[in-house]
Amino acid sequence: MISFGLSNIKSVARVAKVTIVKHSPEILMGIGTISFVATVVTASKATLKAQDILENHKLELEDIKEASELNSPDYKPEDAKKDKITLYSQTGLALAKDYAPAAGFAAISLTCFFGAFNIMKKRYVVLAAAYSALETSFRNYRQRVIEDKGEDADIYYMTGQKVKEVTVKDDEGNKVKQKVLTLEDGTVLSPYAFKFAKYKENGELNNQWTGNPTLDRAYILGQQDYQNDQLYIRCVFDKDHKVIKRGWSFLNETRDLLGEDPTSTGAVVGNLFGNGEPGRDGYIDYRIIESTDRDGCCFYINPNVDGLIYDIVEKYEKVPFTPNVAFDQF
């Protein structure tokens, strides 16, 4: 029975340890918040006591001043100076003792807040590394699918929707072939894809939309060219025209150019200039697919996002590389 009891205690202890480690940021934030409240309360009480301490200090300082003004041979200026030093020291110690609890709680609060921040920062680094490795593996997989089956097959495997090539007439009556994808349920093509249509995702009218398929397609392609220019412009070159600082563009910039609101994901993923890493195209391609919805014609923007670039943009100055993309391409 004793052995069974000890086993249970060890098991509970292990579970408790895992739980505490898992929720340590929340626990530290809770302790920090409680300590912050305690800091305010104790500081308020100390301030009330400090008024009496400062009042006594003022009265004793006046007594020293009056005594020194009497010019008594028994109380010389040196004595007055010593008394002032002693008085200021005693007042300082009394105030420090009075505010010590508030300072202690403040130190605990700051320690907890910074501790929670450091834990979350470390977890973010690990998560970003894991996501980057998974994303690289997935990009390589998709690249193999495209090389073996083609881009249309890649879209089908990603979304379950088939891309069809149809013949339509343009504004001048010429027959042209276009890839059309009909998505009645609004299914997107990838986690980063969005629809360019009359209405935005939040239901508001999209001011960039004209309703003329030819003009809207031309506008989309124009914004795509503009973003590729930005990738090049944002690069920094050395005297030999070698890229020492890579151009970048976040997904939210694409969404903004096409009238959509930004997202939290769009603030950390995007494209990088050049072809310096496996699985990255080095340019921006909206991969436009014309479709229809209840309001008529629409376009699905399925950008070739390179993935997470937030950390890369911060440190890319330290990673010089020679891009495989020709400069005159942009």
Q: Your description of this structure?
A:
The structure is a single chain. Mean pLDDT is 78; it is low at 317-330. The chain is elongated and about 115 Å long. The protein has 2 domains: 2-140, no CATH class; 164-329, no CATH class. The termini are far apart. A hairpin with a 5-residue loop joins strand 1 (164-169) and strand 2. The strands form 4 sheets. A 3-stranded antiparallel β-sheet has the order 3-9-8, with no helix packed on it. The chain has 330 residues and is of the alpha+beta class. The chain has helices spanning 2-22, 24-69, 77-149, 151-159, 213-233, 251-257, 310-315; strands spanning 164-169, 175-180, 194-196, 236-237, 243-245, 248-250, 269-272, 289-293, 296-301, 307-308.
